[in-house]
Design goal:
single chain, 165 residues, alpha/beta, Rossmann fold, 4-stranded parallel β-sheet, 15% strand
Length: 165
């Protein structure tokens, strides 16, 4: 069996150096919002609007979260196929962010990132980006960076685990 190359795209929402760690302006970015069950998204959508991110479409799937990929495998594949089209005039043409309305597990973040090939944020990453955008002092920016690194550590472990097994 061929050794699988690591996929570092999952770090796009994590603030990796190569991907624009200092980016604080997300104004005008287009995103898709993934929602499971009948959750109230009012607060989450307000945070997204505060960041200046435009929700192109909200996709709902009834039932409980899939522990592996948040959405079921088939539904996640449908979202992935739609994102890959990038047809001119399609509402998802300029989407570069997928938002998950939950505190996703590292496994879910990696799975959604692998499927969609775009930046993926859950509630934690959205809040960290919001805090980073409004951090005015060196101390505040450092605290946000530490929190981000701690959050990323678990995602990196999951990514390493998937590439070695």
């Amino acid at each position: 069996m061929a050794k699988q190359e690591p996929n570092f795209e999952v770090l796009a929402g994590a603030g990796g150096v190569a991907l624009g760690e200092a980016r604080t302006n997300h104004e005008g970015r287009k995103a898709i919002l993934l929602i499971r069950g009948q959750e109230d998204t009012t607060e989450f959508e307000s945070l997204i609007k505060t960041m200046g991110i435009v929700i192109v479409e909200s996709i709902y799937q009834p039932g409980e979260q899939d522990p592996k990929g948040y959405f079921g495998k088939g539904r996640l594949q449908d979202v992935s196929d739609e994102l890959r089209l990038r047809v001119s005039g399609h509402p998802w043409q300029d989407v570069d962010l997928v938002l998950i309305h939950t505190n996703a597990t590292p496994r879910q973040l990696v799975a959604v990132s692998d499927a969609t090939k775009v930046e993926v944020w859950d509630r934690v990453r959205l809040l960290l980006s919001l805090f980073n955008a409004h951090a005015n002092s060196l101390e505040a920016r450092t605290q946000v960076r530490i929190a981000r690194l701690q959050s990323d550590r678990t995602v990196l472990r999951e990514l390493a685990n998937q590439t070695t097994t």
